[in-house]
Amino acid sequence: GESVGLHLPTLSVQEGDNSIINCAYSNSASDYFIWYKQESGKGPQFIIDIRSNMDKRQGQRVTVLLNKTVKHLSLQIAATQPGDSAVYFCAEAVSGGYQKVTFGTGTKLQVIP
Amino acid sequence: DGGITQSPKYLFRKEGQNVTLSCEQNLNHDAMYWYRQDPGQGLRLIYYSQIVNDFQKGDIAEGYSVSREKKESFPLTVTSAQKNPTAFYLCASKNGAGTGELFFGEGSRLTVL
């Protein structure tokens, strides 16, 4: 059923500092993970992905860490900028068959100038 | 420009009326998805389709219907059976060959009066 009144967790970070956004995923069979960024009133945009045969992947200013033992995913943003303010979602999927992609509840990142 | 187009961006509906949200993509993607997003919450999967003339229920399919008569189109009908239809609806597509990122449209905001 629905979780009435659920509020997004919020992370407030000073501009220039590093941000770490965490996510717990639910399906042990998931082998592909993605981070998305959603700005207000818009659709989510892809940031970075990682497959289960890796535990770390780096992009431009972003790093994703995967801990399959505890089903935990994190997104690290280096030198956080005001333009990074958004809601961040992790998503999980299982390879093969229908590509059902399941999203987490999201974390709101607020960058303090 | 390739992308996903959702229309209308804003829609108002009276209780008891069905409404259809349009989603068109010119990315030549096989898979298409519909998600619902409520304030302060994550994305919940309504329906998804891997190929033309085939679709699967997601986690919250009750009160919704879809069709996939063409590869580029995946309209969503919100029926009068949906008890709480006011929400932000997001359409996405993905290249069906293996795992990969979802490309999202800009969303349609439905308000029931």
Describe this structure in words.
The complex is a heterodimer of chains A (113) and B (113). Mean pLDDT of chain A is 89; it is low at 1-6. In chain A, the strands form 2 sheets. In chain A, strands 1, 3, 4, 8, 9 and 10 form a 6-stranded mixed sheet that branches. Chain A has no helices and 10 strands. Chain A has strands spanning 10-14, 19-24, 32-38, 45-51, 56-58, 62-67, 72-77, 86-93, 101-103, 107-112. Chain B has 113 residues and is mainly beta. Chain B starts with a strand and ends with a strand. The mean pLDDT of chain B is 92. The interface between A and B is medium-sized, with 30 and 30 residues.
Topology order of chain A in helix (H) and strand (E) letters: EEEEEEEEEE
Could you tell me the number of beta strands of chain A?
A: 10
Mean pLDDT of chain A: 89
The first-to-last residue Cα distance of chain B is: 36 Å
User: Nearest-angstrom radius of gyration of chain A?
Assistant: 14 Å
* Overall pLDDT level of chain B: 92
Poorly predicted regions of chain A are: 1-6
Which residues of chain B form runs of ≥5 with pLDDT under 50?
A: none
Name the assembly state. Answer: heterodimer
Please state roughly what percent of the residues of chain B sit in beta strands, choosing from under 5%, 5-15%, 15-25%, 25-35%, 35-45% or over 45%.
over 45%
Instruction: Give the SSE order of chain B as H and E letters.
Output: EEEEEEEEEEE
Task: List the chains of the largest interface with their residue counts.
Answer: A-B, 30 and 30 residues
> Largest beta sheet of chain B, briefly?
7 strands, mixed
Overall 3D form of chain B: globular
Would you tell me the structural class of the helices and strands of chain B? mainly beta
Percent helix of chain B, as a range, is: under 10%
Give the proportion of residues in helices of chain A.
Answer: under 10%
- The class by helix and strand makeup of chain A works out as mainly beta
**Number of helical segments of chain B?**
0
How many DSSP H or I helices of chain A? 0
